Amino acid sequence: MLIVEGTSTSSSSLIKDDVEPSSNLESLLRKNDVLFGGSSIGKGFKTAARNHLKRCHVENKQILDHPDLNLEISPIEDPFYVVDIGVIISQAYQWRLYFPRVEPFYAVKCNPDPVIVKTLAILGCNFDCASDTEIEIVQNVCADLPRTPEIIYANPCKPQKHLIKAIISGVRMVTFDNVSEVRKCALISKKIQLILRIVTDDRGAQCRLSSKFGAPKARWRNLLKAAKDSGLSVVGVSFHVGSGCTDPSKYEMALRDARELFDLAKSDFGFDMKILDIGGGFPGETHSFWNPEVLGTTPVEDEEEKINEHEGLDFAQKVESQDDTPYMFFTEIASKVAPLIDKLFPLDVRVIGEPGRYYVAAAATLVTAIVGSRSNELDEKIFSPEAISDNKASDQINERDHFKKRSTLASKNREARVLESITDELNEHAKHFAKQSYVTHETDAYNDGLDLYKEDFDTAADLLGVPDNTQMLSIMRTVEGMNKNFAVGEGDQGLISLAASGEAAVNGMVLQAVADSVPLQDDFAYYVNDGVYGAFNNLMFDHASVRPRVLRASHCDKPSRKNMELSDLEDETPEKLLYASTVFGPTCDSIDVIARNVLLPKLQIGDWLYFQNMGAYTMAAASSFNGFTPSEKIYVCSIHPEYFKSLIAGPKIAGQHE
Questions:
Q1: Which of 141, 248, 411, 542 could be cross-linked to 538 through a Cys-Cys bond (beta carbons 3.0 to 4.6 Å apart)?
Q2: Which residues of the chain form CATH 3.20.20.10?
């Protein structure tokens, strides 16, 4: 069991027993027909996806008997998620490793899937809920567990009926940021424990929240006075630096503000606060946990130095030079934020966090079928789309030295040459996407060739971490699914941002003049059966960017290019050619665009594309617009059950596992 010196009783008793939870976890997975050996990345994903498609073919054979059909094979087209519970288990272990003092309250809104919620409860998580329905989900799903998880009602503005139901259900911790909310709470129950949410500087976050929630310093006194006059206790402070924040300096500023509020509340109003809520927004995608540049440098024995070797700026310099810094990773954020928490807040303060995407973003991969296609071909004799060699483009990116990569990623974009009305926010989006594209390309190269279920305990404890020396030999580089301009190093960088998330890149507005312009008309276009009204609502609401990849019948069996001579490549492996392509969703709305200007091979109806990192803010907000229902889910686990006990026990005793 993980014991952290000085942590609160609640924190140190997250896991009551290191045997019972592992048994409960395995029982839960088997009850829900979880496929052990599958995964959301690498070889395990492709095996799980293909097995699912084979089962679908068998189940659909009866359709062929209809007299009006002349089909010999029943088409299988329904999209589906491959949801990897193993990633969630591994992420829980890593959270306790890097944030041993911070109790996780999973943000249910991110993905309220019952299997995920119950898994996290078994792993010791509590929950951040924003409505009575989310509270009901947690309590119903966890009703038969030996530990009743705690809930914080972390919505600063709540309907009265929801608040009443929450209090009746036993919820006590409630966030607020305005006087009317204090009065509402006071009228409903004096049992409520108020937590004051403060505003933060969330510039640069994937999703900014401070424009809607959070009290600025000028209002702190009025809010504390209102609570005192109403007979309610203010027990803590909460903040949120924005979902998908990759800048630890934002946490530093928020933590210092929280410390100031702690002192003000005690000295002037007599509130002895004991709860600090550092919010969520921690990255959880496959490319968010290690810096590919470390693989090209001399190994460093000191882990902390290894984490920070490319990040030589202090917090103040980081703020001033944000555009010139590399993409930030979870380990870097944690290594800076955790010590600062200890410095500013004594050990009798209970510290909680609200991670959402951190747990589930990489845990789901979406698989979609191509249901339609078109090209810009007018005359077959003169139609000659530009072909990009996957091998050559991959090698070109790999050979760029780190200085050139950094210079490219930090450069200013020239959106005005594409469309004068594109905002500064779009410029920031483009820079973020460029940084992310490079890191995604590098991490995917190592993930694709791995069978995670067959790896050892160290890999199970850090599924999304840096590969070891043996795993590095399975590297499989490809620019498939990348933005063409970024992959080949040409073109106006302004187009990168538009291609990153289709029309959603410009605040969800369809700019038809741009979409109709020549630079955005790709040679090929494909229609898939999930879109922005379904799983890809994250393009609109979460400002996500996606990378389409092709699910091939024998992709995993191909030998690693790294271990092959050039002559072998030429003789045994045909050159894969890629073309600038657009991927559309299935609805009749013209805004249903998933990606533009991405590199894909020539595809046909019935082929399949997959998209990694689709576990956060996807299925939670999917609708049935135009009659296209949300994609189904199949569950897999990339961690062997024999590792469950040690992973649940925590980092301090995990080394005993042999």
A1: 542
A2: 101-291+328-361
